[in-house]
């Protein structure tokens, strides 16, 4: 879990602004032109601890109670069949839906309160979510995370054409598929559904407009932000956690004002990014800050006041925060009414007083000569 403390986890959730957002009707898009709201991007290498904390804030962590989801027995007028032992069982009704099986099980994704996790392996490490009755390898249909949690690998995000999961299976006519055996037909439908789900997640992630980015990974942080920060919309929050302060201080320097000024004065070629001097684009984030928090319990007794000896040790834990901004395109010209400087006004006043003094002296001299 990268020695993540409870108070640090709360600080990350607060700065990342993770909160529940109701779904918006399609006829009323938001200000960014998207129908989806409440979408957060995460790089979680803590075993799913960050995902669990964000899901709890979104209200999608816990599975509904069994009493709420348990079906109730109702009366039916279906025909019954008498068994040899005298029991009565209703006959199964014939399905009136003649569509193929592949059309019945489409990929259903939520449109709000979505968590997209980017991982480096074939599957993300979300082992801690098992304590909340969620198995990423075999998710239950009734669990909210099944529809609100998406996973995408770095290869699928950066180069989807090189990933086998993004390659469309062979298209076969439905008449030919119906002639196959059940096992071969099920395998064909399973491949189609997996491809549809993967393509939907990849296209949705590459479109961007995320509400925030949370990173907790031992990977090189500038390389992560170089690819993920452009996927955020304006005013989105960026939060990076690290057990030590050195990587975050270096990251804050990459987004400092001095780097931004040097980047604007001599911008590198976009195809050459990242460079040695500019591993990230310093104009995309504003107000980089590094902070920490530590809640240490104390024992307060007469003559024996000291921190509890059972407190958690290890790293302190530091958090980098910044705000996503949209750089202005083209040059910026500032025009206004020019005003004279105060020094020049004083000089003008001094010259006027000297001239008046000279005139008064001349007038006195003339009066003396006349008299």
Write structural notes for this entry.
The chain has 371 residues and is α/β, with parallel strands linked by helices. 33% of the residues lie in helices and 17% in strands. The chain contains 12 helices and 11 strands. The protein has helices at residues 6-15, 49-58, 66-69, 101-104, 145-148, 154-158, 174-178, 182-207, 221-228, 246-254, 257-265, 342-370, and strands at 37-44, 80-82, 88-90, 112-119, 149-153, 210-216, 232-242, 285-292, 298-299, 306-307, 318-324. Strands 5-4-1-6-7-11-8 form a 7-stranded mixed β-sheet, with helices on both faces. A two-stranded antiparallel sheet has the order 2-3. Strands 9-10 form a two-stranded antiparallel ribbon. Helix 9 links the parallel strand 6 (210-216) and strand 7.
Brief summary of the model shown:
With 371 residues, the chain is of the alpha/beta class. Helices cover 33% and strands 17% of the residues. The chain has a seven-stranded mixed sheet, sandwiched between helices. The chain has a two-stranded antiparallel sheet with strand order 2-3.
User: Percent range for helical residues?
Assistant: 25-40%
Number of helical segments with 4 or more residues: 12
Distance between the first and last residues' Cα: 105 Å
Largest sheet strand order: 5-4-1-6-7-11-8
| Sheet of most strands | 7 strands, mixed
Mean pLDDT: 79
Radius of gyration: 33 Å
Overall geometric form? elongated
Q: Give the strand tally.
A: 11
Structural class: alpha/beta
Unreliable residue runs: 31-35, 66-82, 86-105
Would you list the SSEs in sequence order as H and E?
HEHHEEHEHEHHHEHEHHEEEEH
Percent range for β-strand residues: 15-25%
